[in-house]
UniProtKB/TrEMBL annotation:
Protein species of origin: Flagellimonas spongiicola
Keywords: Oxidoreductase, Pyridoxal phosphate
Gene label: gcvP
Gene3D superfamilies for this protein: Aspartate Aminotransferase, domain 1, Type I PLP-dependent aspartate aminotransferase-like (Major domain)
EC nos: 1.4.4.2
Subunit record text: The glycine cleavage system is composed of four proteins: P, T, L and H.
Domain Glycine cleavage system P-protein N-terminal: 9-436, 447-725
Name this protein carries in UniProt: Glycine dehydrogenase (decarboxylating)
InterPro entries in the record: GcvP, GDC-P_C, GDC-P_N, GDC_P, PyrdxlP-dep_Trfase, PyrdxlP-dep_Trfase_major, PyrdxlP-dep_Trfase_small
UniProt enzyme class: oxidoreductase
ATP-binding is among the record's keywords: no
Amino acid sequence: MNTDVFASRHIGITEKDLRTMFEIVGVESMDQLIHETIPNDIKLKQRLNLPAGVSENDFLTHIQELADKNKVFKTYIGLGYHESLLPSVIKRNILENPGWYTAYTPYQAEIAQGRLEALLNFQTMVSDLTGMELANASLLDESTAAAEAMTMMLDLRSRQQKKDGALKFFVSEEILPQTLSLLKTRSTPLGIELVIGNHETFEFTSEFYGALLQYPGKHGQVHDYAEFVQHAKANEIKVAVAADILSLVKLKAPGEWGVDVVVGTTQRFGIPLGYGGPHAGYFATKEAYKRSIPGRIIGITKDTDGNPALRMALQTREQHIKRDKATSNICTAQVLLAVMAGMYAVYHGPEGLKYIANKVHNHTKLLANTLAANGFEQINSTYFDTIQVRVKDAVKLKETTERHQININYVDEDTVSISLNEAVSTEDIKTLVSCFTEATLTQDHSEVIPESLKRTSPFLEHEVFNSYHSETELMRYIKKLERKDLALNHSMISLGSCTMKLNAASEMLPLSWANWGNIHPFVPLDQAQGYQEVLNELESQLNVITGFAATSLQPNSGAQGEYAGLMTIKAYHESRNEGHRNICLIPASAHGTNPASAVMAGMKVVVTKTDEHGNIDVSDLEEKAALHSENLAALMVTYPSTHGVFESSIKHITKVIHDHGGQVYMDGANMNAQVGLTNPATIGADVCHLNLHKTFAIPHGGGGPGVGPICVAEQLKPFLPGNPVVSTGGSQAITAISAAPWGSALACLISYGYIKMLGAEGLTDATKIAILNANYIKDRLKGKFDVLYTGERGRAAHEMIIDCRPFKAHGIEVTDIAKRLMDYGFHAPTVSFPVAGTIMIEPTESESLAELDRFCEAMISIREEIDEAHQNEPNNVLKNAPHTLAMVTNDDWDFPYSRQKAAFPLAYVSENKFWPSIRRTDEAFGDRNLICTCAPIEAYAEA
Ligand SMILES: *Cc1c(COP(=O)(O)O)cnc(C)c1O
């Protein structure tokens, strides 16, 4: 074994296993399997034009060299991004811990109570600090959260049938530039008219439905908006506020002035800057709007035994269900970062946060006073952490600050702003001042925050924020939560469409390094040369893999990529005076985010049928394309299909769309079945998104971080999204899709490392083994479970759908199988997507033959249990699953099967038992009695 070959670590199947597997699958060779799986006319003739893989050790040396090319300056640019101090206990036990970062989105609540609790803490923290009743967990960044507020308030307007026709939205000129750019992107397709101005002179007319304010303003002035909000209310204008979360420790909470929504980022609660992300955005609102909130809400309910249980609440709001009726397409969010930010609040508690906020504020005052005492005019009358200073010679100042390795924000020719943060020391302030003058520091204890703007209300009073302030206590609390969660460090998570593959330690290590973590997204490019090399090369790698001309790394999730891709298509049509094209064809089997994104892009969704083999019904598609020929904008197609099949008609399908003047959007969530064997350009697509957090090894993080770049053909390249602060994107760039120029740049290091270490051959082998593993499971389960769809030669792609509907005859639902798998130590595959009553299994290439076999044995054993089950006797091992330790050790045992069968159904289980921490959750009860913050247990009991 060549231990320098990373592929042999990433791929779980050995050369020796292949014989056994080929026999089960019924092929002579890998070539035969691939030949029978992928249609001939789309197969790549040449190997990927990428270098050979490098060893893990060489990669770490290489990435260290690149890290050294980034220059870590003291950065006081602000504008929504601040250096912060990630407590080492959180870094080591969460960020660097696969028990946390490899977990899946907590759909299976019984084996996800740990991260659900961590997210409930996050929601409580946000509710408390903003003064709002309800918060979600979480959104992609501050700017997209602001856009979600703008669209949610529009939706509320039409729901409440008030202000029909009012389509104007006021945006304060104090808003961050990247947020304004994003609001422009998101408002246009929906017909919202943005009016940007001064809130003090705003005229409240009936044409306005909503308004957005920034608190403190973009250059640090803290405005008193109370009066504005009052007037807005009187005129039935809803108000959202983008607020700096740390400032809320000292400033009056927006909830106390009666606003409708508060949004922002939690980056400065311990999250590395990472050249722009990933960071968790937050969104808080009133209880009355709970059914309209975008993203996920964690709520408290009870389990079968009446014990408290957490789960994702109000799931019917999700775009998976609402599809083209959805008002938001948020799927993957930034869960790992929300967990970390919430834990930062748990560790510091209210007193710790006050200390930090006071430190930041007092340092800012010290700086302001010293500069003022030396004749510099400081403009902000009320501020928290940011001051504005008039300067005579900004060019010279810039030279001086950069010589001292300091970045500040140059507002205009004679004004700068300086934003301080928790990492600033008195020494730093001395250096900063010395750039302006030779002065010594001047203390002045007068207040700069007026009484009316001071926070007086308490926050974070719940026990969880007042218990774990020593490292030992926090370490154990994190461990306690982690133990409740089944992640990839326990067993395979075979989630169809989500590609839960290895997230290698060597790919992850650089994320902890300061030279990657501590870079502000708006620093001059020459300070981020390491990042620029990684991002440029990643773009080229993805161009090669997709066959396309250009890539934008800006979108922070697959769904955001869909939206970005459709917006470039829209811009392309407009550039050809065909802006009327607005019909988007979407097959019935598409993921819910597809129709939701199309509607957000201002398109009209026309659903095309699926034939009996699960393929796109070609004649229906031809008919609809012809019918809408005049106005056809795009087709959105997932390939291989969400049914796990390489449809052989794909080239014909894409040609039909082009013949009618449309563009083809390929949803790249299933790219793991294509890399190195075929590609989106070859099938005839014009643009695709990739989920780097699926195919390209970024960990799922319990529901994010996500990176959803779009790759485009030549004709769409000019329209790739830009950024208002840093130049990026195409020559006729559309406005921003996410806040940071390169989205979640820090997480891109992982995919870069993945591609670099696997190389052309390793990437292609990974795809082949992913296909082999899926077909192996399919054939091992043959005769026990029916696979719903296969390709023309009976092959699955990299995943397959197993039909569980026939078991209804035994009274068994697909959920019972999903829950019973927990007793066997497995996370359920994807349940009821894309077909209700089925499960979709995707093993990925990273799993070993031994693990595939354990999973198959569990499934076969469950199949036998299904045979034993009877419709008239629901007290059975499947219906009662999962079995908790409390159940099995209870003195009373009145189930008609043994404890052994309940908890240790197969021999392998007892060696490595995973205990679900609760029984099944009561969804209806929880949704009726919605509790989304850390309420005391008594409150819950009374509900
Ligand atoms: C995961 C997925 C998406 C959405 O991607 P996110 O990153 O979660 O936004 C879209 N389409 C398909 C088929 C997917 O599996």
